[in-house]
TrEMBL record:
This is Ribose-5-phosphate isomerase A. HAMAP family: Rib_5P_isom_A (MF_00170). It comes from the Bacteria. It comes from Paenibacillus cremeus. Belongs to the ribose 5-phosphate isomerase family. It catalyses: aldehydo-D-ribose 5-phosphate = D-ribulose 5-phosphate. GO terms for molecular function: ribose-5-phosphate isomerase activity. The gene is rpiA. Pathway: Carbohydrate degradation; pentose phosphate pathway; D-ribose 5-phosphate from D-ribulose 5-phosphate (non-oxidative stage): step 1/1. Homodimer. Keywords: Isomerase. PANTHER family: RIBOSE-5-PHOSPHATE ISOMERASE. Pfam families: Rib_5-P_isom_A (PF06026). Its EC number is 5.3.1.6.
């Protein structure tokens, strides 16, 4: 928890008055939103765009002024977590199911600061099963097609029911073991009809901040 908090709080130092800020999703982004809430109480003036209903609710509780992505058009900085980060800053995201909105917000952000604890830094992506958001219609067939790409695809289930994303879709967690060519895999997966998007974020991050258990941080 400490490692996530220190990384997230460091990222918030880059936020300045007047910025439009993308709020990521998950247990690391949580700390960035908390810190931002405190700064707003201290007089910081920003507008925020949330990447999930959870983050939106948290921001509302903390009094962070929210606008929709359509009103924002562009974010100055987005702070978000990741499930894995490789040496080229390619990411796996979507462990919390928010990958689609996260990718949309990230793609309209001038800067994407990724905040992670040390366990997320890997030399090669793929140990963490890659989340793929798919539409419900024909989901069993889409899942089979994903399996043909060389992964073990599993429908994400919560409390015996399929997990539903904020966009009303399902998530298939695809265990590839190791991903040699993330950019190619990203395109191949998104070509499958029924796939909405996948959790590979290819070279979108502009900064990575890693937090360690002893409270130290490394900015990459
Ligand atoms: O869908 C969720 C997001 O991509 C999260 O940013 C990612 O799963 C990392 O979450 P956490 O900081 O909780 O490990």
């Amino acid at each position: 928890m400490e490692s996530k908090r220190v990384a997230a709080e460091k990222a918030v130092e880059y936020i300045r008055d007047g910025m439009v800020v993308g709020l990521g999703t998950g247990s690391t982004a949580y700390w960035a939103i908390q810190k931002l809430g405190k700064k707003i109480k201290g007089g910081l003036s920003i507008k925020a765009v949330a990447t999930s209903i959870n983050s939106e609710n948290l921001a509302k509780e903390l009094g962070i002024p929210l606008i929709s992505i359509s009103e924002a058009e562009e974010m100055d900085i987005t702070i978000d977590g990741a499930d894995e980060v490789d040496n080229e800053w390619n990411l796996i995201k979507g462990g919390g199911g928010a990958l689609l909105r996260e990718k949309i917000v990230a793609s309209f952000s001038k800067e994407l600061i990724i905040v992670v604890d040390e366990s997320k830094k890997v030399s090669r992506l793929g140990k963490y099963p890659l989340p793929v958001e798919i539409v419900k219609f024909g989901h069993e067939l889409t899942q089979k097609k994903l399996g043909k790409l060389g992964c073990i695809p599993k429908l994400r289930v919560v409390d015996n029911n399929p997990f539903i994303t904020d966009n009303g879709n399902y998530i298939i967690d695809c265990d590839f073991g190791s991903i040699d060519q993330p950019k190619d895999l990203h395109s191949v997966i998104n070509m499958i009809p029924g796939v909405v998007d996948n959790g590979l974020f290819i070279k979108i991050a502009t900064k990575v901040i890693v937090g360690y258990r002893d409270g130290s941080i490394l900015e990459l």
